[in-house]
Amino acid sequence: MKTPIIIFIFLTVLNSCSKDDSVTTDSTGYYGKWTLVAMSGSIPNSETTGAAMEWQEFYFFNTNGTFTKSRESNSVKTSISGTYTTTIQSDGTSFELTYPNDSEIIGSCFGNKKEILLLTANNSLSNTWNFCDGPSLKYRK
Fold it and tell me: In sequence order, which residues have a C-beta less than 8 Å from that of residue 38 and are 6 or more positions away?
């Protein structure tokens, strides 16, 4: 009787040590609203936050692979929706956002109706637009 109990405990402990590759920033994962909290240019110490930023914007990620990006600049609100995919690699998670048509709020180096966002170790999203002289943008959930 002792042997089956010991085997059961051993298997339970072994199973609890399995690797979990899921991406989570909190109990709801990366789904939901991510708000722009900081922007900076290529000039050192040029970071702005809050109401001082040139515009306000957010992404809203749905569980079905769709998202909405919304920006307010000079009291003008612009929104666009599209689809996204995630890629989990050893150095982190990236999001590839695909838009159905062009919009002035797409922050891309390539002009191909796509944006790339990176989930950082401190649970913020950052853009890749700054790789080609666009602003560096940071988002928090």
Answer: 47, 48, 49, 53, 137, 138
pLDDT digits (tens), the chain, 141 positions: 444 444 334 444 444 443 334 333 333 489 999 999 999 988 888 899 999 999 999 999 999 999 999 999 999 999 999 999 999 888 789 999 999 999 999 999 888 999 999 998 888 999 999 999 889 999 999
Domain boundaries, the chain: 23-140
pTM: 0.77
Distance between CA 84 and CA 66 in Å, rounded? 6
Architecture (CATH level 2) of domain 23-140: Beta Barrel (2.40)
